[in-house]
Amino acid sequence: MVRCVTTDEAPTPERTRRRGPARATGPRLPEQRPWRQPTMRLAHTEAVSADELESIHLASLSILERIGMQVLDPEARSVLAAAGCEVDEASTMVRFPAELVEQAVAHAPAEFTLHSWNPDHDVRVGGRAMVFSTVASAPNYIDRAGVRRTGDRAGFQDLLRLAQSLNAVHYIGGYPVEPTDIHPSVRHLHASFDILTLTDKGLHCYSLGRQRNLDCIEMVRIARGATHEQLLREPSVVTVVNTNSPLRLDIPMAQGMIEFARHHQPVIVTPFTLAGAMAPITIAGALAQQNAEALAGISLIQLVSPGSPVMYGGFTSNVDMQSGAPAFGTPEYVKAALVGGQLARRYGVPYRSSNACAANALDAQSAYESVFSLWGAVMGGVNWLMHAAGWMEGGLHASLDKMVLDADLLQMVSAMLDPIEVDDAALALDAIAEVGPGGHFFGTGHTQARFRTAFYRPLVSDWRNFETWQEAGSPTAAQRTHSLADQFLAAYEPPAMDPDRREALADFVARRVAEGGVPTDF
Question: Which of 32, 101, 366, 382 is the most exposed place for a label (fewest CB within 10 A)?
Answer without folding.
Answer: 32
